[in-house]
Amino acid sequence: MKQSQMLIPTLKENPADAEIKSHQLLVRAGYIRQIASGIYSFLPIGRRVLNKVENIVREEMEKIGAHEMIMPALEPSELWKETGRWTTFGSELMRINDRHQREFALGATHEEVITSIVRNEVKSYKQLPLTVFQIQNKFRDEARPRFGLLRGREFLMKDAYSFNDSYESLDETYQKMFDAYSNVFRRCGLNFRAVIADSGAMGGKDTHEFMVLSEVGEDVIAYSDTSRYAANIEMAPVVTTYEKSSEKPKTLEKVATPDQKTMKDVADFLGHELHKGLKSILFNVDDRFVMVVTRGDHEVNDVKLKNLYDADMVELATEEDSRRLIGAGFGSLGPVHVPEEVEVVADFAVEALVNVSCGANEEGFHFTNATPERDFKVNQYADLRFIQEGDPSPDGEGKIVFARGIEVGHVFKLGEFYSERMNATFLNDQGKAKTMIMGSYGIGVSRTLAAIVEQFHDERGITWPANIAPFQVHLLSLNPKKAEQKELADQLYETLQQAGIDVLYDDRKERAGVKFADSDLFGVPLRITVGKRASEGIVEVKERASGDQKDMEQNDIVEYVRDWYQG
């Protein structure tokens, strides 16, 4: 394609609102343009990269027997109400009314839609297992869209859904999808990890996220330094064993702690280490109040709390709730003398403590020398804290270290979460009605594009992996006003096209410096420059990522390009 005929507007400076490299470079290089907060257009060169990623996804889906379809982006609320997600999905679900005031959602995901289709069309075990997928724009009303394509309100996603006649069959489909996702991200050149994750509003139990390692990732990955174990920090269990303190319990005392609000404030004021204090946080768990108690140096994991209660909703109680129920604000809460209507649960680490400080449930006062079970009762001990670096790996091999990651894919074993609620059944080989067993699988196609740029760039621009780049070759004619340069560049353009090589031809009447800068921004793997030695039939070939360059005869170009991409 001739660059003079394409819409590729480049910028010299980073956009003011672009905080990370992928956002900066995709805008500067003319791949995307923002239309509104969190909403982007993909310009022609950006569309070409999306096509490359989509084609890889399609190939891997088809290899495992998944078939492509397309579902409407406009989903009637009645389907979401069948599963209860109309209320539980939360404020991210974009809802609209038509002229007849009928409620709809803009598709954030399509479990309800595909289940409604399959329950009407699939009746027998002979039609199972079945896996379908689509590549379609999705919509989420993000409170704070940021990081360009990494957190938007409209984004391109591949979502797939499987229907099985047993959990054993689901396990097989899940593994096939897991392997296919691994292949997709490997083919995209990404450094990634598959991590144990939380299913959140999707429902179901077993799930993995595919995380691209990146310092700008919003998720924290906890992984072993010696094994393949990896999990989202929310889901990593703590397997540390705690030995009961050998201290002799002392007398409980109430002391004044004026203006000491944080755990560190109180620890410094009372002169003890952070782990010798108790952190007490009040939560609303499905409309009942629960006080969660951890050591002062640990952080409460609300996902583990939600899973402990198998709850639909977990949120921090309000300060007003705290004062009404317990008589004190957040900085003074503790488990001693808690009213009966508040349940107290504690992390396993708390059970081993003796003589610790905690809030006295009175403004400006704390207890010292508090000991569990003597001074306060705990309804249940459980793993309720976030894992920390240095903790033992849950698989028993090595220690935990942290990395940040960008989520690009997610696979779920949904089980009967949707099919039971929506009465999606089939007749088994004995003629009995059984509930279908489901799985759900998503890849953020546009997020993947951004994640690739986060891992493949330098100070001059993008350095696309070879099979993802918008073009195979960027051909530059440095001075098309000179007949010999234009003639050779035109000849090479035709020769490369006839050889089936995808080429972007910079035929613009621009200065050489502008062309070189734009070429570096675009990140096409190979650049061929027609310049001063055009009259000799000699061009310069440069590898974008390594910077290696050489002069070459025009007649050797096609073979070189083919060999380079095959090697």
In brief:
It is built from 15 helices and 31 strands. It has 567 residues and is of the alpha+beta class.
Describe this structure in words.
The protein has 567 residues and is an alpha+beta fold. The protein has three domains: 272 residues, 2-Layer Sandwich (BirA Bifunctional Protein, domain 2), CATH 3.30.930; 130 residues, Alpha-Beta Complex (YbaK protein); 94 residues, Anticodon-binding domain (Rossmann fold), CATH 3.40.50.800. Helices cover 27% and strands 29% of the residues. It has 15 helices and 31 strands. Strands 3, 7, 8, 9, 10, 11, 12, 21 and 24 form a nine-stranded mixed β-sheet that branches. The protein has a five-stranded mixed β-sheet with strand order 16-14-15-17-20. Helix 2 packs antiparallel against helix 6. The radius of gyration is 29 Å and the shape is globular. The model has no long low-confidence stretch (mean pLDDT 95).
What is the strand and helix layout of this fold?
Layout: H1 21-28, E1 32-36, E2 39-42, H2 44-63, E3 67-68, E4 74-76, H3 77-83, H4 85-88, E5 95-97, E6 103-106, H5 111-121, E7 130-139, E8 154-164, H6 167-187, E9 192-196, E10 207-213, E11 219-224, E12 230-232, E13 253-256, H7 263-270, E14 278-285, E15 288-295, H8 302-309, E16 314-316, H9 319-326, E17 342-347, H10 348-351, E18 356-359, E19 365-370, E20 380-382, E21 400-415, H11 417-421, E22 425-427, E23 433-435, E24 437-444, H12 445-455, E25 457-458, E26 461-462, E27 473-477, H13 483-498, E28 503-506, H14 512-522, E29 526-530, E30 538-543, E31 549-553, H15 557-566
Parallel strand pairs: 3-7, 15-17, 17-20, 27-28, 27-29
Antiparallel strand pairs: 1-2, 4-6, 5-6, 7-8, 8-24, 9-10, 10-21, 11-12, 11-21, 13-19, 14-15, 14-16, 18-19, 21-24, 22-23, 25-26, 29-30, 30-31
